[in-house]
Q: What sequence folds into this?
């Protein structure tokens, strides 16, 4: 028997219910980051942007919070996507989703800064090759594009979710993860243990954990325990606002800016994802939002160095507001082309190849498991016919639908 909640059955979402509002929120978060890089930073303009954008610059200085909103959405979506999946299926879905657009972004960014080294220089072939693995941050190698740092944070989140998939994605196991991760993230700074801090990710854990909890609400309904977890994450999310402002804007600028707008943005992000989880936006089914959601990942990958190069090149020829709008539209169009020409066909091919690989691995591993479990012939014990009873097997209902990611 399936349990329905706000038009979302426990056997899976109803046909066509892709949570378009979540796609729209992803687009908004991506545009916040773009707005921040193009308007708040001096690098593409050659000098402080206060004289260029005297009003909008203030709002743009908080656009880095789009990354935190991304992590909040990612917690929700990844928890949704792993439900009912095996470890191999989860790996296939993540690799085929992340790498095609990422490879295209690296190659396109490298080509642009090689031909027009105005805001950055050619990183060198070794760095480009190393970046293709997406693991460059793990071995202290520089990123081809500075925004790629968030991808390594995502990869560590995936590793944490692997543990849940290994033990089984259930309501109980997800709650255990949220509790243990919350404790680790809260205690890691005081314990001064680098390995614990690296994987507990105290700065970003509250957003991932809150996303997971919101999905549990979506799937199983709300209760006081889940809301208590959300409240704890909302409090913990405030701890690093000053640090994030300093690293994003510089200590001098961050000191002069008030912190309350950043806190309001975080509260608004929690409120919107919570409202989506509880079904407040289920009637939003605009198809263009689904397309927009698909563009956010390639847009994020290509917008920084390429967009800044274009702004720097044309900054003295085109009015600043027109230039920012034109470059943003061009980046969206380019992201759509990457999605259609690279991401979809290459992702489909990767999924097919990796699925065959997973099947092959399982086929080769199965005889070993069987032989290890059956070292000798089993002993048969006769059972009286009167003691035999008919039984039936039960199985958990699983969801096979992946929505957006990142």
A:
């Amino acid at each position: 028997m399936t349990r329905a909640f706000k038009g979302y059955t426990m056997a899976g979402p109803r046909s066509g219910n892709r949570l378009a509002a979540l796609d729209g929120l992803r687009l908004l978060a991506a545009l916040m980051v773009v707005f921040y890089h193009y308007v708040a930073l001096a690098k593409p303009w050659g000098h402080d942007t206060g004289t260029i954008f005297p009003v909008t610059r203030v709002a743009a200085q908080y656009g880095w919070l789009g990354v935190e909103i991304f992590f909040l959405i990612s917690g929700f979506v990844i928890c949704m996507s792993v439900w009912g999946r095996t470890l191999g299926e989860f790996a296939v879905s993540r690799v085929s989703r992340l790498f095609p657009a990422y490879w295209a972004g690296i190659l396109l960014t490298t080509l642009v800064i090689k031909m027009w080294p105005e805001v950055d220089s050619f990183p060198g072939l070794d760095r480009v090759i190393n970046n293709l693995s997406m693991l460059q941050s793990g071995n202290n190698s520089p990123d081809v594009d500075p925004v790629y740092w968030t991808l390594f944070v995502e990869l560590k989140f995936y590793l944490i979710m692997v543990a849940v998939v290994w033990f089984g994605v259930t309501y109980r196991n997800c709650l255990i993860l949220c509790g243990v991760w919350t404790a680790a993230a809260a205690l890691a700074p005081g314990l001064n243990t680098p390995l614990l801090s690296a994987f507990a990710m105290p700065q970003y854990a509250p957003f991932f954990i809150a996303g997971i909890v919101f999905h549990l609400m979506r799937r199983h309904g709300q209760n006081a325990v889940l809301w208590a977890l959300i409240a704890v994450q909302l409090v913990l999310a405030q701890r690093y606002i000053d640090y994030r402002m300093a690293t994003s804007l510089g200590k001098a600028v961050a000191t002069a800016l008030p912190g309350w707008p950043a806190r309001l943005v975080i509260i608004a992000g929690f409120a919107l994802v919570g409202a989506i989880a509880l079904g407040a936006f289920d009637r939003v089914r605009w198809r263009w939002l689904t397309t927009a959601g698909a563009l956010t990942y390639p847009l994020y990958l290509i917008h920084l160095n390429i967009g800044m190069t274009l702004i720097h090149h044309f900054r003295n020829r085109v009015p600043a507001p027109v230039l920012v709008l034109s470059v943003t539209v061009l980046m969206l169009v380019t992201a759509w082309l990457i999605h259609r020409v690279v991401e979809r066909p290459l992702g489909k091919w990767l999924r097919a190849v990796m699925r065959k690989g997973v099947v092959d691995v399982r086929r080769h591993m199965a005889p070993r498991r069987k032989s290890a479990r059956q070292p000798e012939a089993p002993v048969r014990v006769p059972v009286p016919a009167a003691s035999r009873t008919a039984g039936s097997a039960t199985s958990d209902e699983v969801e096979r639908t992946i929505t957006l990611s990142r």
